[in-house]
């Protein structure tokens, strides 16, 4: 896909849109119509949200639960929140994106949760306090349970395997604004590897990714640190992306997982692969 294959986004008044800030200057109803295609199809097909009104199915007739498009006038920020029920703690779908000062679009955060899957309280400590992605306090028992269930660090529930169609639609949306670059900061090692699969390259952090792959090989520095000293440092974890990611989350590196920045040129796959014969 290239920008040339995508029709430029035009507002109802005929003006072309070049940024989220431009879209956010429109009336709320028009903004929601523009942003609605970013919501994964299964929200409508599987969970029954109305495609026109964005309300969830509600037999009571109250119609309280609606897809939230948070897109304030004057700001280049978009947040979409979808909850199956208005009382749900976790979003079924959540995405946040923003304009950058350099004419790019930042994919700040995206999660897609299976609301019927077991929840692991890795996002709060054992006293129930929010822990900022375990950067402040960790909940080791919940992390162990999550890891044993096959989740990656910071996942509170199993996903719905719909990130790929979301991302493809997201890239089309970015192209429709005439923007040619997406930037992001992967939250974990496994996120970074996943973004490689979607064609991203590194602004910063590529050498660290290569170091991680090299030193998790037998005899490497990180391989030797898989010494059984914690549930997250077991021999064999070097063989999968998820295992490595948990070890890194546990602090096996000499530095925090930080300042990893990535980018993708619209319609181009960077063909970056920092792994050596490794399973996801």
What gyration radius follows from the Cα positions, in whole Å? 20 Å
What proportion of the residues form beta strands (DSSP E)? 5-15%
Characterize the overall form: globular
Cα(first) to Cα(last) distance is 26 Å
Number of strands: 7
Order of helix and strand elements from N to C terminus: HHHEEEEHHEHEHHHE
Describe this structure in words.
This protein has 280 residues and is α+β, with helices and mostly antiparallel strands. Among the domains are: 1-116 and 162-184, no CATH class; 118-156, no CATH class. Helices cover 26% and strands 13% of the residues. It has nine helices and seven strands. The protein has helices at residues 20-24, 28-35, 41-45, 140-148, 163-176, 189-197, 206-215, 221-224, 241-249; strands at 68-70, 77-82, 93-99, 105-112, 181-184, 201-204, 261-265. A seven-stranded mixed β-sheet has the order 1-2-3-4-5-7-6. A hairpin with a 5-residue loop joins strand 3 and strand 4. It is globular, with a radius of gyration of 20 Å. The two termini are 26 Å apart. The mean pLDDT is 94.
Summarize the structure.
The chain is of the alpha+beta class. The chain has nine helices and seven strands.
SSE inventory with pairings:
Blueprint: H1 20-24, H2 28-35, H3 41-45, E1 68-70, E2 77-82, E3 93-99, E4 105-112, H4 140-148, H5 163-176, E5 181-184, H6 189-197, E6 201-204, H7 206-215, H8 221-224, H9 241-249, E7 261-265
Parallel strand pairs: 4-5
Antiparallel strand pairs: 1-2, 2-3, 3-4, 5-7, 6-7
